[in-house]
Amino acid sequence: MPQDIHVGSPVWVEVPQLAWTGGVVTSVNENEVEVEISDEKKVTTKLSKLHPRDVEAPAGGVDDMTKLSYLHEPAVLYNLAIRYGMKEIYTYCGNILIAINPFQALSHLYDLKLMDSYKGAQLGDRRPHVFAITDVAYRAMITEGKSNSILVSGESGAGKTETTKLIMRYLAYLGGNATAEGQTVERKVLESNPVLEAFGNAKTVRNNNSSRFGKFVEIQFDRRGQISGAAIRTYLLEKSRVCQISDPERNYHCFYLLCAAPREEIERYKLGDPKTFHYLNQSSCYDLVGVDDARDYIKTKKAMDIVGISEDEQDAIFRIVAAILHLGNIAFAKGEEGDSSMLQNDKAKFHLQMTADLLMCDLEALETTLCKRKVVTPEEVIKKSLDPSAAAINRDGLAKTLYSRLFDWLVKKINISIGQDPDSKCLIGVLDIYGFESFKTSR
Ligand SMILES: Nc1ncnc2c1ncn2[C@@H]1O[C@H](COP(=O)(O)OP(=O)(O)OP(=O)(O)O)[C@@H](O)[C@H]1O
């Protein structure tokens, strides 16, 4: 709480909608303060809720917020807003870079000329930029001979994935030579993106293409500082989304892509309208504006070709995706014995049959797995019957495990295709992980 606020002090005061607005204190009465915010409009608030305002701060804001007289929330937000208004999306706070999503292509910010200008420059010599941060990480790696990491964090839709791609582009510029490895590795990492996105991204309230997993991209370098390999590690895939989605979000893209596949494939996997699948119809959102799922299905398959996933493997992948959709439609009813369950109807039997066919497993074994739980005691193994709701939970557990194993397998395959360098001297890791989101309930 500022001690020196008195009548006439310029302050920031919290107001609905605007978050913060500037004003001048007109009266102080113990803890109650009256602030004139504009056109003789006044608000009354507690002294502890006010922040001092620097009236001498530069009109165009500052490019490094450690230069601000006051480093509190309203000062930071105001500075970022002024700069954003001037299309300056990057601002430093010491050696941390803050990037504001421009939601429009700013190609002049990322061209070759600009990359040249950041090469070897000291942090702060040039305008704040993601290339400057990357350059510092690279130079430190070269001079100290130690690996380095860049952490990219922010809430959903903030621009983490785009920023990660820009970091990789700049590292390829620094550590690649036009004909060889650097470019190839960067290209391979980027080319694997559509595959990762089809299986790890989904539409959320904030972002139509939200990554629902954390990603650590390792760019490996040899002794000359040239890129010699790369690897992608993934974390914390949001498994619950496979079985549970809320309106107006979507499940993982791959489910909708497969439902929009050419007729031959739809018949092979006995699919149809996404509205007929329990794992998709919990939300009323099926289509995305500007996205053609049928076209993206073909694009994903092409990306799979590029990363070396064979036709047979692609069939196996989509069989699992289809099996998960059928699995979700296996509904249970109360069985004859107490606390037991059985398939609800012929429709459930059809989906069980389809799941077993697609997963190439025994139908009865699958049914038993869903309706019973194995309890291992020191003496024996008991099969305990499950009531319909426990069987549904069991079914969802299987769907989640199948999906996350499939995702892990894809990542492994992508890494083989990109190629790691076992003798790499150092690496730069880029961690793209969501943060700052607070949910009412954590799933
Ligand atoms: N630097 C940028 N220039 C232009 N557009 C951008 C930039 N950064 C982000 N965007 C736009 O914002 C959208 C969302 O960004 P992005 O997918 O990178 O967010 P994210 O933080 O990774 O979100 P999530 O955590 O949900 O995956 C992008 O699809 C792109 O349209």
TrEMBL record:
Chain residues that bind ATP: G154, E155, S156, G157, A158, G159, K160, T161
Every Myosin motor domain range: 60-443
Keyword ATP-binding listed: yes
Domain of life: Eukaryota
InterPro entries: Kinesin_motor_dom_sf (IPR036961), Myosin_head_motor_dom-like (IPR001609), P-loop_NTPase (IPR027417), SH3_Myosin (IPR004009)
Record key words, sorted: Actin-binding, ATP-binding, Calmodulin-binding, Motor protein, Myosin, Nucleotide-binding
Keyword Nucleotide-binding: yes
Ranges for domain Myosin N-terminal SH3-like: 6-55
Name of the featured protein: Uncharacterized protein
UniProt organism field: Hibiscus sabdariffa
